[in-house]
Amino acid sequence: MKKIFLFAFLLLGIWGCDKKYDNVVxxxxxxxxxxxxxxxxxxxxxxxxxxVTASVEFSSVENVVSxxxxxxxxxxxxxxxxxxxxxxxxxxxxxxxxxxxxxxKFLMSQYDANGDYQLKYFVVDKDQNTKMVATQKFLYNNLQxxxxxxxxxxxxxxxxxxxxxxxxxxxxxxSVKATDPNGASDVANVYFTIYxxxxxxxxxxxxxxxxMNDSGDLSDYGDATAGDGRYSYLMTxxxxxxxxxxxxxxxxxDRYGLKSNIITHTLYxx
Length: 270
Fold this sequence. Notes:
5-stranded mixed β-sheet, 16 strands, Immunoglobulin-like, mainly beta, 270 residues
């Protein structure tokens, strides 16, 4: 991810038509100034051409070495970054070389989640300072009907045994695969609920729904690879836990509240 060394100025909440900016310049770096951003508004997926043109215009480019963008998902996750060019090439969506308008195209997929995406624009100046100079949001619609996520391929032990030499239960991990017809980013959460042998539900931190993790956090969650769609959890039983059969129920939810199929697994504690 691009590191931001110094903020020169921000253009926040930009929507709709082009707009001129004339009072947001940092006086300490007045060798360039953002003049306008290309209109984006709502972007609809198109099988013929689903490209989006990011474009920023400067009033002056005396101190500009390069211009770039970063694209963030509705979950504020960096999903793409690239250079912007003032080269007049149609492949970059740039109309004319040397007109102080820097542009480039990126593609949106039918599997990209619906929602508000954010573009951040950066300039590298002659002193090699990198500064974020503007932000812009656009609403994306993939034109796909929303469908529920799907859980599969649960990897979990059937039995956990009290280790007498250690005098405790050893930690154990388990994981489940979560996919979504509308794209991986549409999966909001993967949860599980545990029922004790006596039928009561385990309350964890005030909630009976325990969240799993796909961040690559191996030490705390037992998750080996971030972003692979396999959600994991690392847990252990206390010494006074009830012995017998524990029922685990796993479910995923998408960002619109649709729930997946439920996977039920029995773990025997002895």
